[in-house]
Structure formats: C-alpha cells, structure tokens
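User: structure tokens for this one?
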Amino acid sequence: MADRPACVAIAVLLLQLTAFAKAIDPHLEILPSGDTQTKPIGSSIILTCKPKVDNPELVQDMQWLDPQNRVIESLKFVVLPIESTHTGHSKPAMYTELHQDHSLSLFFNSLQEEQAGKYTCKGTYAQNQMLNKSVTIDTIIAITWDDAPVNQYPILGEDFSIMCRVRARPSPSVDWLYNGELIKTNDRYVINAYSLKIKNVQESDDGIYTCRASVQTTGELQERLIRVEVHTRPSIEEISSPIDITEGENANIECKATGKPPPTFTWIKSLTQQNLSITDRFGVDPVTGVLTITNVNREDAGEYQCTATNLAGTVTTNIQVNVIVKPKIMEFLNKTVVEGKNKDIMCKAFGRPPPEVIFRKLTADKQYLMGAQPQDDRIIMTNSADDVSGETVGVLAIHSALTNDDGLYECVAKNAGGVAYKNGHLTVEFPPSFRNMPNITIYSWEQRPVNLTCIAESIPNATIRWTMFGDRRVEDDVTIQVIDDGPISTLQIRPTDRRYYTNYKCIAANIHGTREHIIELKEATKPTELLSVKTVELTATSIRFDLIPPTHPDLPVKTISVQYKDNNQIWQNAKNRTWSVGSVYVVENLKPQTPYNFRFAAMNDVGLGNWGGEQHETTPGRTVPNQPKILTTPGSEYEQSAFNNQYELSWLAPPDNGEPIDMYLIKYCQIRRVSGEWEVLDDTCQEVKIQGRTRQYLKGLSSDTFYRVELQAHNIMGYSKPGSAKFRTTRESAGNTVDYILVSAAGDTCKIAVATITAAVMLLSLAI
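Assistant:
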C-alpha cells in the first residue's frame, strides 16, 4: 500500500509528458515534398500547401506567391472569357484553390519554361503567428525534334547533311545509327551538332537512319527514324536531231529522260519561248515527255526545247524539227513529137525536201531508171533539185521517137512525206501504116456481097481512097459502095461478074506521108472429092473409115458427110451421117451379113461438094464381141495402184458384133519376174463376173505385189478375145486401205472422185 502514491505520481507525470509531446510547432507543409520540384514543360501539376497546426480553424489568409512575389489569384477571382464560362472547359494557366481542411493548392494547367522559379506559400495562425514555406520549380524540356524531317532526299554524287535538330533541357546528346550499327565520324560520315553529313552520296546510301537523342540527367531517350532516298538529277537521252514531221499529219516527238524521282517534262519553242502545253494544236504529256502536234504546219519547223525536272534538278535539250512538205506536181504537160525526132518530157514538182521525180509508162510494169535505160538507151531520165526553193525538175529525154513511145506517162514525185502522181500524154505522129492488117484474101461466091475493110494507123488520122483493077476509081462503079474515108474505110462489093474478083488498093495519106495496101477478092468454090477413103474396122453392125478430106485452096473443109444403103435401095432412100473433120468416122446400127454401098462428100462455107469415094462392104455375121481395151497409161509396163489391197480396173466397151454384151469376165493372178520373164502363180488366180458397167475394184489383194488381169466381153455368141494388163499394189501402211462398193454405173463418177482424193492423201502419207 505504501507504493501506491508513488505509482499515481508516475502516471500523472506520464500524462503530462504525453500532452507535451502532442503539442505541434505551427508550420506549413508543401506536397509533394522536396524543396525543388523538377517538372517537364507542358505538364499539368499541383502543389498543395497544408498548415500543420493544432487547430486548423485558426489559420487565415492562405496565399501563394509567384517568383516575383505576386499573389496568385484563386480560380473564383479569375475573369474568364464569356465563351469559356459557357463551355466550362477553359481555365487559367496558373491559379489557386482553397480546400475545407484550409490547405491551398497551386495549379499549373501546362507548365511553361518562364514559370520556373521559387513559389512561396504564406498564412497566419492564431492571428499573430506568420507561417510560410517555399518550393522551387525547375522546368525541364523533353526531347523535341525541331528540324528532323522523316523523309530526306540527297542528290547522287553530292555531299548531303541529314538534318536532325533536337532540343531538350538539360541539353541532349545525339548519335546516329544505320542498319542498326552505330555511325562514327570517318572519311564517309561527319557527325555535326544537328546533322549527319554524308560525303559523295551514292545509291547505296539509301535506307533508314536513326537519330538517337538522350538526356543523361533525366534518363530520357528518343529515336527518330529518317528515310533517306537518294535522288539523281534528270538526264535526257540523246535524241537524233533533226526530227522530221510531215505537213498535214499529226506528229509525236519523244523526249526521254531518266532520274529519281522520275522527272516531269515541259516543252517550249525556242523562237517564241511559248509554253507549248497551253497552245491549241500542241499537247505535252508531263509524265512521258511526248510533245504532240496536231495538223502539222510548215511554220512548225524550228528549234524546240525539252526540259526535264525532278526534285534533284533540271536539264534541258534542244531539238531541231524539220517539217516535211508532201510532194506536189506543179507541171506535167502533154507533148507531141514526130516519129524519128527528139522530145523532152518535163515534170516539175515541189516539196520539202525536194522530191525525187521519176517516170513510168502506164503500159509498162517498171519505172524508168535514172540515166540511160539499160534496154533502150534512146531514153534518158535526169533530175535537177533546188534545196532552197524545194523544186525538182525531172526530164525524160526521148531520142529518135518511135510509134510505140506514144501513150500515157506517169510522173511520180516522192520524198519522205509521201508520193504524188500525175499523168500526161506523149503523142508520136507518124505516116499511115498497115502494120496490123494481115495480108488476107477475101472470098465470095454466087454474087454474095462482101466487105473489104482497110484500117490505116497514123497520127494524125489518115484519109483513105480506093482503086480497083487498072487503078479505076471505085466511086465510078455503082455496084461498089464506100463507107467512111478513114482511118477505117470499108468497100461493100456485090460481084455481079468475074471482073470484080481482082485486087483492090487502099491508099491512106496524112501530113507525114502516103501508104498503100492490097486486098484480093477471089471467087470461092465447093470442095472437091475426098483424097482417100479406107475401111479400117468392120463388124457385124458397124464400120469405121479412115477419110482424108481434100486440101482446098480457098475455104477449108468443115464437115464430111456419108450416104449409105444396101443393094436393094436407091440413093434417094439412102441414110446420111455427117462428121466434123478430124473426128472418128464410124457408121453404126448396120445389119449383119448385109452388103452396103457408101459414098462421101466434103462441105465448106460454099456448100457440099460432089459425092465420090464409093465403097462396097458386106457386114459379117453375128459373132462374139471384139476384144475389150483396158485403160492404162501409155508406155508403162504396169500400172501402180493407189492402194495396198485393191485396184481399180476400167475399160472401153468393145463392139458387140450383132448381139448385146451381157457380162464381162475378169480374171486376175499374182505374177513374178523370173529371168526377165513374167511367171503366173496359178494358185493365186481369181475370177469376177460383172454386168452393166465398165469399171470394177479388185479387192483382197496382197500389198507390194504384181498382178496380171485379163478381161473378156461376153454376148450370146460367146466370149471375146481377152484384153490384158499388169499392175502393182503399194506397200502396206496404216490408214491407206479403203473399201468401195460400186452399186451402179450411175454412181461411178462420184466414187471415182472420192477414191482419187483419198488415194492422193494415202500416197502423201507414204511419202512422208
């Protein structure tokens, strides 16, 4: 119990110590803490000044002072623009705001470099104790790219500085990287404060460069990627000058240039310095560099300037343009010359450049050559050109003119712009000529009227007069009429007696001379008897003759007629047949075992001659047909089939000798040559009988094999003698076998055509 008062005393002491400990020395605290606040420009910050006192209610007159000791107004005292108050979005750059706990905040909306400095917070506690606290705001500038374009374009072959002007506070350091590797100053690169200099830029310097900026004190690091594209100055390709364009046409003139980036083009005419892209007839494609001229004029000739431009520079070139004027023939006149004299044919033509002038006779295929003509040195062609006037005079000199020089001539003027043509006529005058009148004899008979025509060729035209026997004037005879007196004249004569069968003279004359031509009028007669009559072939129903007509001196024999009758008839009842001269003279449909009389007469334009050349023949009795003739190639030992397994056999139907042929027998066998002779293989022989046609395909043959075929005609009297032939099949080859079935003689023509075409195709395949 004695210790209890001591414990109480200790407790009271502890309470007093505790109360003393809780007593606060009044002061101000600025948050965030720190005497210096380092903040980047442009940032929004808040500084809060908080009183640290026992009773905050006793704190009064809290203020913030700027570095110039000016009171910073509270937001409620700041006058804002009207529109700002309506929207509620604008606030001053710096203001204060008092809170319920009596703390006072200082706001910076966007910290500026000039706002750096010492800011002081002040207040009064318990009306007599002054409180203050200061903080220094130190501004820093973040890395800023002031002049560092992301695309930069050096020029090939020149020095170039890649710009990278960077700003920061504290000051930054800058280094460079290319393709991830750090660049150091050397003979190619020079690192300056704000750039990287590249010496003698090459295309290999293309690429992405990294400008790297850092601030060691803040640890800030920024990289700037810069794309470097090496440009090359424009270079215009060499242009062949001068350039020729043609008057009246549209022209394109190309100006080609290389460069990076691709250049654009402009054109001007050097004389006028006019921009051609804004004129009516001119057009400029700025991308391709083509200058287009519509409807070229002669005035368009001259010097033009093409300019190619890109970001690396500009280059120009001058181009001389010539306007080609198409040729025009100014003069080409008709000319006249007398046969045997000399004459120059002249043709004048204009153009730029002066055209070449050449000549051609329209009846000839080729033009004349310059100089003397190789085939006719009488004709010489020359040209004389004047570059100043643009005129060319062409001369075709003809010496000792001939009549065949007469005619139309063509003058041809030619230059690079085109060709011009013009025709002119050369007339060669000459005395009358009968060169195209044959020496013929005119015939008449039985007072038949005839025309005697005389054609006199001459320039100028000739006049014609006629004389007859004894140089009598034909005008004195009323039976003769003259039609026209030149250059064509005709005598109409009716020869009423033999005096008119004589010579008539045509006399033609013009200013250059006189010529004569004789025309004979003769009396024509009927043909005489045939020169020869022979019997060639005699059958039971037909007879064939060999007849030689008379050689008449006047009019030729046109036909031969025959009259024939049996012995019981008179000539008035005889039958007649007429043949053309040179045909096969055959009389058919005779009676077997019958005697016949034949007589013949030749016929010309005058009429039928006398009957003569009588023949007496008796037809034999009915018998077997004559031997048929197989159709083969003359002179060939054997025929070659178009196929390897068949052969087409054809023949002529022989005379039937009184009884109709009712069938043909075909026998064919393989043969082979032994010691130069043909031997028949009897065991290979086959026979075929056919009716009603003269063509048959022999099928199932062996390839590349010789055959002999025999053909006999049959009638009721029996078989004829056999006609024979040899043939050979082709070698076997895939695709050359064709089978044909001939169902009637009427279809033979079409089948032969098809077989012939197919055979040709097969032979072609064999040849290949």
